[in-house]
Specification:
- The chain has about 140 residues and is an alpha+beta fold.
- The chain has 5 helices and 2 strands; from the N terminus they run αβαβααα.
């Protein structure tokens, strides 16, 4: 199996990345996509579908951060990586997820949930509660 990564902030950038990636004879058959709800995911998924590329897609409420950013922190700089979540974090996640479903993405074939390993230790048994509530919001496999 051969895989390539394409990064773009617009359908035009992603289309250009696809054209560039197939120049050497690469024939993509599956796209695993990560979109912010602020991006034009419909245009991109339509474009991939027209090219005969199956899509496994996800949408995020926030933006992904380029991994190169972490390398620009000067040595010796003190910073805090994370703060423990408030006790109402599960409620906040469910409210945001419901708003995304109601306003931006009314249907999903499945949910892929990415969580920091620290989450299990910071919210403990609330993690399974959050997962159950998310499954109820979307009524789809996780």
């Amino acid at each position: 199996m051969k895989a390539k990564s394409i990064k773009g902030n617009s359908p035009e950038e992603i289309s250009g990345g696809i054209i560039e990636s197939i120049a050497d004879g690469f024939t993509p058959t599956l796209a695993i996509t990560f979109f912010s709800i602020k991006q034009d995911h419909i245009t991109v998924t339509d474009m991939l579908d027209k090219k005969g590329i199956a899509i496994l897609g996800t949408a995020t409420e926030g933006e992904f951060i380029d991994r190169d950013v972490g390398e620009s922190i000067p040595q010796g700089t003190k910073f805090q990586i994370s703060l423990p979540p408030d006790l109402d974090i599960v409620d906040k996640v469910i409210i945001k997820s419901t708003a995304i479903k109601d306003n931006d993405l009314p249907y999903a074939d499945a949910i892929i949930l990415f969580a920091c390993i620290e989450k299990k230790w910071t919210i403990g048994p609330l993690e399974s509660d959050e997962n159950e509530q998310l499954q109820k919001v979307w009524n789809t496999p996780m």
